[in-house]
Amino acid sequence: MNSTTSPGDSSMVIPALAHDDSGPRMVAAGFITWTIAFIFVVLRFWTRAMIVRRLGAADWCIALSLIAGAGTCVALLVEVRHGMGKHVWDVNLEVDGKPMLEAWWFSLLAYTLSLVFTKTSICLLYLTIFTIEWARKASWSLLAIVVVSNLWITISILTYCIPLQATWDLSIKASFCQSQDAFWANTGINIGTDFLIFLLPIPAVLPLRLPYRQKVLLVGVFAIGFFVCLVSLVRLAILIKAKEPSMDFTYSGTELTYWTVIEIHTAIIIACIMTLKPFAKRYFPRFLSISGNSTKDESSASSGDVPLTIGSRPLRNPPAEHRPDSWVEVSGGRRDVHGDTIPSDIEVQAGQAPDSKREVGMVEKQVVVTAQQELPVTDT
């Protein structure tokens, strides 16, 4: 009998070591998600600089987050160049182990900085939206929690081992290295602040008596942020699964890398979406159009007993005589002194309406007929 087997006889084939390489997919995931985040940051800066004509600290924080995200991608590229994504038996650890670990440490630092700048940007944005005292205090408190907690996380990364070089150079004896418990605590802090940031606006938005579609849009803008929380939980599940040491560590960390870059860049994208309503109103007005039919919700929204801003006191006794050039903006909608609500971006302002006879920057003008008077309104 012939002792040889044909290639199709899998029952007699001796299993061989795998030699596939997930490195290119890791790099692609990093740079594709970063590019999408970059596009949204550009749209945000265009909106703030050219339409709203007002750049603030929140915008610059998101730019710093994008730069840190780029640092994560560059570190990932270096890791892959030195064997990350390959199976450990295909990597010369004596040559590539040190630069791979050094790049991994840098990616951990860049990841942390990207998250803290994104969360700081969102908290600063909340401070421009909320006028009610409890919401502003909560925003300041949350900002303090984000800064202090991430300061601790950054310090724990900078002191991963003492001396720091022992983190990636295994020939150096470390006098101290952070325990895994510290980094589990860091992960818990990040997830906790994620939920706090995206839960904060909900109780302030829900009481608003706005048209149904308008309220859904406003709540949806904030609620979409829970996708970041979901990504964080997925990443946590992968961390738990990878808790046990793996001999093939250069390959087994691939999935965690995917979700790391997705998390930081998705957070940037969502932080930018919150600011893009003026852009959508100018270039895609049909997308944000709200029916002008008299519905129950709209009737309620146009009554006098409606908060003027997120959580502010209602205007219960409007004056008998209304100046046609008086106006206020509601978060998610603008209303005149008669209580009529019309769509607007998420801003809160009050004062004299712009003179319709003179040009006011790049703002659009529309006229709302209220009590047989024309009320000039601008988009900020």
From TrEMBL:
**Rhodopsin domain residues:** 43-281
Please provide, in alphabetical order, the Gene Ontology terms of the cellular component aspect for this entry: membrane
User: Where does it localize?
Assistant: Membrane
This protein's source sits in the domain of life called Eukaryota
Its membrane topology is listed as: Multi-pass membrane protein
Q: Where is the composition biased (Basic and acidic residues)?
A: 319-339
Q: Where are the membrane-spanning stretches?
A: 26-46, 58-78, 103-128, 140-162, 182-204, 216-238, 258-276
Report the coiled-coil segments: none
- Matching Pfam families: Fung_rhodopsin
Transmembrane as a keyword of this entry, yes or no, is yes
Q: Where is this region: Disordered?
A: 293-359
Query: Any idea which UniProt keywords this protein has?
Result: Membrane, Transmembrane, Transmembrane helix
Family statement drawn from the similarity comment of this UniProt entry:
Belongs to the SAT4 family.
Recorded hits in PANTHER family, A to Z, give: INTEGRAL MEMBRANE PROTEIN-RELATED, PTH11-LIKE INTEGRAL MEMBRANE PROTEIN (AFU_ORTHOLOGUE AFUA_5G11245)
Q: Know the name of this protein?
A: Rhodopsin domain-containing protein
Organism from which the protein derives: Apodospora peruviana
